[in-house]
Amino acid sequence: MRIHILLLLFAAALSACSSGSTASGDAGLSANDGEAADTGAAPPDGAASSGDAAAACMEVKLFKDTDSDGVGTDPSGASACLKPGDAPPAGQAAAQGDCKPDDSSVYPGRAEVCSDQLDDDCDGKDLPCPETRPGIVIPDWTCDESQPVPSSVLAHALVTEKVDKMQEAACFLFFEALPGEIYLAAKAYMKTGDCQNGFDANRRMAWLTVQDPDACKIIRLEDAGELRRKPQPMSSTCRKFLRLMDDSLSSDTTYVGKGAGEILRRLKEFPTLQIGCAEVNFGGAFQYKGESLGYGPVKINPNFQAMK
User: Which burial class, exposed, middle or buried, applies to 296 when counting CB atoms under 10 A from its CB (0-12, 13-18, 19+)?
Assistant: First the structure.
């Protein structure tokens, strides 16, 4: 009897040991499952593995971007791991090829502004404007804001500030004359608006400038008499050439660009229209002083209607 009881107890012990071994094995299998998740098994929805996070950024070589236009020049010697949509650190760019690193309105890929005597898109040349077409009708409006602004007028500027050499203020209209074609019209007369030391016809110009034109350096020319034959730097980082002015400001037109979008972008960057005289250096005693004749803010017409 005693032997039989001992045998039963021994069998129970074996059963308990076998059960514990199975539980231990299950626990080990769960741990192995966890290891499998760390080495390639798909994580739960919404979770990202460390491998995915590392793959989301890419090591990018950086270039010096002194004007913060998104395009740099020389390699900066630095790099950064950037994810899609990440911006490089301040003063750095992930692209290079900026031909004018001190002017944020000039960089590769920029839409070229025609005949501003500036290579806006860094392709090595300025885009000439098309000839003004005959039959252009200038809107019958003279910047009188008590009257409705014509829907064809994209923007206007009334030159009134510091007008010390003009008998009348000058009204300029940016308007759409033909579908997609924006022109500039002068709608007043400067009867005494002359540059110091004469030589008015080729020295007097209209520019788009930053908000404070007095902060801009005067454009300096080599020979104003050559302007119509030889391109000269009539634009700078804060002053963009619009057109030469004649001895008197007559109601004529100048083509300034294709499409309202690019013109509006330029007007946003340079929201003041200025009439001024370029400085001319002939060498020796023949040096003519540059000066501002007047300026006024460019105002956008919210009721502009593009032609179809």
Answer: buried
Residue 168 in tokens: 């009348």
d(CA 101, CA 106) in angstroms, rounded, equals: 8
Distance between CA atoms of residues 164 and 178, nearest Å: 36
* Residue pair 220/105 in contact by the 8 Å Cβ criterion: no
CA–CA separation, 234 vs 237, rounded Å?
Answer: 11
pLDDT along the chain (308 residues), means of 10: 42 45 37 37 46 71 90 85 89 90 88 81 86 82 93 94 66 93 80 57 80 86 63 82 68 82 91 88 68 90 94
**Widest Cα–Cα separation across the chain:** 138
Q: Using alpha carbons only, give the angle 51, 52, 56 rounded to the nearest 5 degrees.
A: 120
Nearest by Cα to 239 from 97, 118, 65, 109:
118
